[in-house]
Write a structure and sequence with these properties.
By secondary structure, this protein is α+β, with helices and mostly antiparallel strands. The protein has helices spanning 2-18, 176-187, 193-205, 210-223, 230-242, 246-263, 266-278; strands spanning 29-36, 39-46, 75-78, 82-84, 87-89, 92-100, 104-110, 127-153, 156-173. The longest helix is centred in the last third of the chain and has 18 residues, at 246-263.
Amino acid sequence: MKKLLLLLITCVTVYSVQAQVKAPQPSPTAKLEQKVGLTDITIEYSRPGVKGRKVFGGLVPYGELWRTGANKNTIITFSTNATIDGQTLKAGSYAIFTKPGEESWEVYFYKDTNNWGVPKEWDETKVALKTTAKSYPVPFNVETFAMDINNITNNGGHLEFIWEKTYVAVPFTVPTDEGVLASINEVMGGPSVNDYYAAATYYLESNKNIEKAMEWIDKAVEMTKDQPRFWILRKQALIHAKAGDKKGAIAAAKASLKLAEKEGNKGYIKMNQDSLKEWGAL
């Protein structure tokens, strides 16, 4: 009986030690994944709340380094090099530290990501890049600290910080052109229909050599003449229109419209009809 009682006490004790209370984090963690051009960007950080406090100039003093969030360091990762304020930030992971001010913030990309908060000993040799960004007032209260990537184009975007009544954005660019052109050059020795279509589309949307884009899209149309595709013909119409070939644009749009009507694709029907009206063909 004593042995049984001892076993029960031991089991209860072990369970009590292993059991943990589950409760929400005061500053919940977040992970943002965003592709900009051909670059993958990841941000991992914690999101403190205002909770009735004065944040900037109070909880976060002006002119002092801040971990830019809560708990473990905020970490940003770029899969390719990026350019910020004319400086190159090499591909990799960095802790983001900031020094908020009333009118602008200093933003640091720090090579050591293993700190919990601001390093006890700041090492300037570990600063991969430093920049200054203007601080803007927000006409409403943002309760929870947030980071985001917005104003996204093929070649860059803005790294944003927003909390309480303050907004800060750090513009950056990524080497999309370099990557796309390298890819185009690599496959042009024996490109497929999709390769020609993708290359032509990129040149059209990036305002590059329209004559080259027309050459590629015409090749894609030629390769699919036995089974024409309305989306390729639609792109051919847009490229020829931009190149000043109105007659060719109208012919391609009419062919795309006919196929889109056959397939019942309302989106392409409307786009082609709108273009034909614009070009005086309807």
